[in-house]
Amino acid sequence: MNSKNRGRKLIVKQCKNRDLVIRNHTALWCQGALILAVLVSWCTILLGANTARAQTAPPYPIGVWGSFGVGHDIDPGLVNNLGIVGIMISDDWSNVEQVPGVYDWGTLDARIAAAKAAGFQYIALSVTDSSSRTPQWLLDSLPPDQEVDLLDDAPIHKTFCQPIQTALYWNSTFHQARLRLIAAMGAKYTNDPAIVAVNMAAFANHNSQDWNIQDAIENIVCPRCPQPPPTSCGTVAVDQASQWLAAGWSEQRMLNIGKDTCDAAAAAFPNQNIKLPIGGLDITYSAFSGGTYTTLCRDIQDYVYGNASLGIPPRPYANRFFMQRNTVAANWQVGTYFDTYVPGFNADPYIKYMIRAHAHPNPPWTTPGQAGLQMVAAATLGAVTDCRQGGGPDGPCGPTCDPTCVMQTSLDVARTYGTAFIEIWAQDDANPAFYDMIRAATIAMGGTPRRR
């Protein structure tokens, strides 16, 4: 999909603006970078050998992945979509651990069994242990100063304009409960060969397993007044970054939580690939963001993959760790654009650049394709979500956001990043109108469609 000559253009271009590239990897892209990349890789491996041997997991099945959806029954439309190589299965923490220390795996077990019976050989598993899916008993156990109420600013949520009781990520009781959940989940599922990946390294997740810390600094237009409690009404000014800072937030605290969580997921699931969706933070307050929009996700990147220039060895699980971005839309810039252009640290394009850098078929990254993408919404929903998957009414498919155009365009742009997997929403993986384009995308990525 991308030639080596294009990769050589990247080598020369990025040396001209060394302050903008991923920190301390600049030397790898300067003249003679292919030789230096090999030397640095050797040094990184040697540094890592001082801690533990590299770990292996099954190769990540390449292609388009679908979502099981809701309920215990698998959608026949999903089963018939042979371009879908694997299936994502999840449940909420509030369902799994309704009593402290007692885990109910019933929903996950039923969905896993249904997926296998339908012929799916590959599963990516998660329990959504986000702030909004925290068991109520755990929230009730926390002192008032160990939680913060954050107004839900997403109109698509049922809790829009309602305060979400949110535990401080670094609170020991909350953090240890999440680590115990990960350990228990690993003990239950790591020996299942069908489970090839888990999304349990997420540590900055308010709504889902995606990176979605509530950091709004804006006026939220809530429903017209009056509204029944606890829903706010009218225009409400929020500064959630200030709320976090007042509660004791620091970039280093969050980084430490991220380190613990990534290590815990890798330890609990030694036989699986580990996924971590990444994102940014509002830069209005440098103490909140660590100085740039991407500081925290770049710091966790260095921790996992290592940074030889900083003397940071890679974690033993670095070769089975996949960062992903879950906001792909039809209006995204193509991934190959970032082979010759490096954005600044203070905006979302740099995260797209990180994904492309890890997926790029040439050095300096250790494993081509070692990254993933997920669509921001379902193309099937169309204008119901303001053409979100289409990139808005001004996106490439126009104000009507024709679902076929949106899905095809989104798949086309996602493929240009060279990632191992592209994840789509349940409404789309069961849509027969998309079967052919999804199968074609999987084949173009180098994957193998399922057989009946």
Named CATH topology: TIM Barrel
Rounded to the nearest angstrom, the distance between the terminal CA atoms is 28 Å
Question: If strands are numbered along the chain, what order do they take across the biggest sheet?
Answer: 1-2-3-6-9-10-11-12
What oligomeric state do the depicted chains represent?
single chain
- Helicity level, as a percent range? 25-40%
Number of domains: 1
Largest sheet entry: 8 strands, parallel, barrel
Mean pLDDT: 88
What is the correct CATH architecture? Alpha-Beta Barrel
State the low-pLDDT regions, or none.
1-51
- Please compute the radius of gyration using only Cα atoms: 22 Å
Shape: globular
- Give the number of helices: 15
- Beta strand %: 5-15%
Write a structural description.
This protein has 452 residues and is an alpha/beta fold. It is 33% helix and 14% strand. The protein is built from 15 helices and 12 strands. The strands form 3 sheets. Strands 1-2-3-6-9-10-11-12 form an 8-stranded parallel β-barrel, surrounded by 6 helices. It has a two-stranded antiparallel ribbon with strand order 4-5. A two-stranded antiparallel ribbon has the order 7-8. Helix 13 runs parallel beside helix 15 (435-445). The longest helix is centred in the middle third of the chain and has 18 residues, at 172-189. The radius of gyration is 22 Å and the shape is globular.
